[in-house]
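This section describes the prediction task in plain terms. A model, or a person checking by hand, is given the sequence of a single protein chain and must write out its three-dimensional structure as a string of C-alpha cells. No templates, partner chains or ligands are provided. The sample shown here is typical of the held-out split.
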Amino acid sequence: MISLRLDPKLEQNVQNTAKILGVTKSELIRKSISEYINKIVHHSPWEIGKDYFGKYSSGQGNLSTDRKILLKTKIMAKRK
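The expected answer:
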C-alpha cells in the first residue's frame, strides 16, 4: 500500500477528473501511474522522440557523415 500527499490544486484536479470519468480517485491514480510507467519503460528513446526527429530537416541526408567537408565548404564560401 502506498500513501501520498498531493497539493490541494492537484488533489482537486484528480477528484474532478475521477468524477467526470466515473471512477474512483484511487483507480484514476493507479491507471495514471501504470500508463506513465509503460510510456517511460517500454518505449525506446527513438519512439519517445520520433515526432521531433527530423522535424526541421534540411533535406540533406549526409550531414552527419560529411559534416567536415560541408563545414569547410561553408567557411570557404564566406571568405570569397
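For orientation: Residues 65 and 71 are 12 Å apart (CA to CA).
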